[in-house]
Design goal:
Fructose-1,6-Bisphosphatase, Chain A, domain 1, 24 helices, binds zinc ion, 2 domains, three-stranded mixed beta sheet, globular, alpha+beta
Amino acid sequence: MGIFAAVLPGCSDSGQKEQEWIVDRFDDIKVIRYEVPGFEQLPLNEKILVYYLSEAAKCGRDILYDQNFKYNLAIRRALEQIYERYDGDRNDADFKAMEKYLKKVWFANGIHHHYSNDKFVPEFSRDWFESQMDVCGVNEPVPTDLLVDIIFDPSLYPTRLNQTAGVDMVTSSAVNYYEGVTQKEVEAFYRKMRNPNDHRPVSYGLNSKLVKEADGRIVERVWYIDGMYGDAIKKIVYWLEKAQGVAEEPLKGIIGDLVKYYRTGDLRDFDTYSINWVEDTVSNIDFINGFIEDYNDPLGRKASWESNVSFVDSDACRRTRIIAENAQWFEDNSPINPAYRKPVVKGVSAKVITVAMLGGDCYPSTPIGINLPNADWIRKEHGSKSVTIDNITYAYDKAAQGNGFREEFVLRAEDRDMMERYGKIADDLHTDLHECLGHGSGQLAPGVKGGELGSYSSTLEETRADLFGLYYIGDPKLVELGLVPTTDVAKAAYASYIMNGMMTQLARIEPGKNVEESHMRNRKLIAEWCYEQGKADNVIEMVKKNGKTYVVVNDFDKLRQLFGKMLYEVQRIKSEGDYEAGKELVEKYAVKVDEKLHNEVRERYYALGIEPYGGFVNPEYELVEKDGEIVDVKISYPNNYVEQMLHYSHDYSFLPTLN
Ligand code: ZN
């Protein structure tokens, strides 16, 4: 629920050139650097706190590799050894191709694409690779044949995450959350744990791998300090305790809660930590560190390890403060069945933050907004914390300047003007509304527990939050609250949302594939549903001009009504736990790609030379000591992606190759 992924780069304003922000580009990826404005002005103890929490953020990198696929660490280490020991011509075609492959592996934290989940296709030869394994003396505790087969045989572990209806999603997904068990066995295992009378259930299965032992017993291998991933968790705890030593209350206690959870692995300790974390609205420094989001589990239960460290951007907080203060008004006026509105909206805290370090599943690709915790009952009783990450969106924006995207895909000059003028504020506000209010709005019907929507839940949840944002961004109330100068901001938001959902996001999908990722599914679902529903009134039109296809919104008011109508239905589906209706919506509108349009979009998009995915290199922090005392923390901005990755692999790699 917490991740609001960045859409395709389409924004631009004037200023510095994109080249200064982009540090590397390969395949469909660009790597951008981000700045941390305000770090130097923090008081010394907060700088030190950021330093310690940042160290903790870097220590879990291997965990994510192993979670994504059980042979990822073996492959990464083999590739890195060849990369560093190779003494042939580094411009050799095979070597260059292997370098590109390694850059992709680093970016995805494994051998499957971070977004499409497809296994990478190597462009270097199998023979060359085998001989280099030999020449460079690569020695990993996985048989060389197996390792090479995994890289080169397309039939082995082809996808990290398979959510195709009707197949066994557990056995057909390469993700390392399950071993030796079928989807049916997993579902039965967790069904038994559920107690219908427990209104405060822990997030069963969140922090463990489920395996079938040799004797046939099915057991959880828990991720905690004395369990699976213990070697990395020990280091994380070491730095968290350092941080605890310099933090002030309430943050000090919260770090202590997290350390306790890492020590016990008990999910009740995780809930205690989450509650205290969400209720802390005063600390200037904040962080996430742990097993949080379940997007990478086909069954939406097990969480990938992630971390980030941040501090409050007080200037930018005005916007989200106003939204949070009016949360009840938005809820009361939401276009849904009144029975499913929250009578009292609890503790919406919304902030704009500056991120200082990204780790695990937030690195190098990162969300631009966060909304946590995920447990429904905690959100209901204690509220949720919502943040938008301003320095990251700023960097994305800078890196996209003048890339020709709008000229290519937006038909009408008036739409381009509006996007130019209001694109940034429209994106920011939509993120705020999605995160601060959208996810938190609504309530379940009596007797509905949540979780009924199964593998469709993330897509439908993101759909609900997006619709909430889209509906309200066109509300005159926003002008009245001083959040937007005019409702034209909504026109910019609607035009680019529909264009992205129906067309331009397809650039990210490999030819012949369907849409898998939940945020992409949700955008397609909304755009296609509104297109069909508004057909009689020509609300959205597909226009052909000079052999090119364009999507044009003809009636913004009617489109807003359609967003409201759809929100009504999607909220009903969630509130009533209507699995069949949810499944039908997603399968009908969100998944299947029109092949002809897909090819056209890809051709036009790639002709512009824009990479559809972006990620980041982190800044580096260094303690300045004098007479044994820390007197300052220095920040610097490295601009070499390969060096940072090798540095992390040398200094922050604590797990054995097989776990
Ligand atoms: Zn979301």
